[in-house]
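not sure who needs this but someone in the group chat was asking about tRNA dimethylallyltransferase 2 from Lupinus luteus so here u go. i didnt clean anything up, its just raw.
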Amino acid sequence: MKMLGMDERTVTSNPNDNGEGKMKKKPKVVVITGPTASGKSKLAVDLASLFPIEVINADSMQVYRGLDVLTNKIPFSQQNGVPHHLLGSISPNVEFTAKAFRDSAIPIIDDILDRNHLPVIVGGTNYYIQALVSPFLLDDLAEDMNESCLDDLPGTTQCDISFIAENDSLNDSYDLLKDIDPVAANRIHPNNHRKINQYISLYARTGVLPSKVFQGKAAENWGQVDNLRYDCCFICVDASLPVLDKYVEQRVDCMMDAGLLNEVYAIYNLEADYTRGLRQAIGVREFEPLLKTCVVEDIYKKEKELTGSSTEKGETLLDSNLREWLISSSDSKSIILLEEAIEKVKVNTRRLVRRQKRMLNRLQTLFGWNIHYVDSTESISRKSEEVWAGQVVESAMKIIRSFLSENESLTSTVELSNMTGMKIIQRDLWTRYICNACGDRVLRGSHEWEQHKQGRGHRKRVSSLNRKARGLTFVEQKLEYSECN
């Protein structure tokens, strides 16, 4: 059975080692994950003031073009010049699978490393992240399998294969998969129709239970921390459920004010497949009852009044916010459907938060991933940039500095970016630094100097010397501290 090996960058052959290959250190990659609305994208951009970061988006809906409000893509104006890859770059009508994400992200990571920058994977779609860092996927195994390599696997019966054939019309049914292989069904979400079809197809073609594929050597290798493609630093931005639930509800309301319904109406199509591509996003199907009934007809009538002639959908959209227009109308049925749809978006988003939390716990407990948690609860509840800087950004910065300390290529330079350029600090052992704020204390080497600057005593003394810095942003504070010393 063919399996994907480690990234070729990680293995090399030494001509003097008598033909025995020697392993290089795996490339270092930072992964910022966590439940939706916890602050992952914001953290990545803030960290770019301290490290030479390039971001690779790992949100399965943000990879698509369109629905920028609904998918909560970070606006270009808030990216602060930080390169973002796989963000709004995929056609909304295609199915961008975990395998497609992996195959797209690997060469991007290689390019980022060649520029001596730090690849940072950011997103809450954990099966994307798992696909990227794991050495192989079921997708690869299914493609490479043949009858000879499946002969020794248990679970094949002609009766079972006939059962699949008789129920072919149900081959996208999660219930059918649960009947066939409850272990495999438990691995995936009931709405992941592509994966459900793949599992059932594999079973129908070979008679092998999909869960059996993950037993033996496959189970030992897939996703285990000791067998990852990269040397990963996993950071989870997390917050308490009550705070996230409240914030999710507020964010949905803000999205509605920003024109979420207009976005959904713009892509609405009675004949569309809502199980593929961008239309799978939470916040699309929830509005289908509203759009399918009276709203579309009412909007057509309104467009006709505005243009004076009959128009096709999409030719003339209302310039105003559709939510506001519906609320101002006298149609109580539409208003009720609107309120129900908004509540469904909130409920489904809260459910997503819980699934993401469970998945992260599973990756930690079953696969041994060393996930560093940073708590954004207080910063979200208090809406405080100061708390965010001190509790989230500072914590993540220390984690990454420790992670990079063994990497010669990335820690040879630590770059502080300021939109248009970067100030490079050579990390050597010979430069002498003098801290005026701490009584002309002498520090030897940039590593010792960087550690000293992060110390509580130093920061307190700098704050007392320049109280104005307390009101600045985190990045401005760092620049101010640097200028004072």
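also The chain has 22 helices and twelve strands. if thats useful
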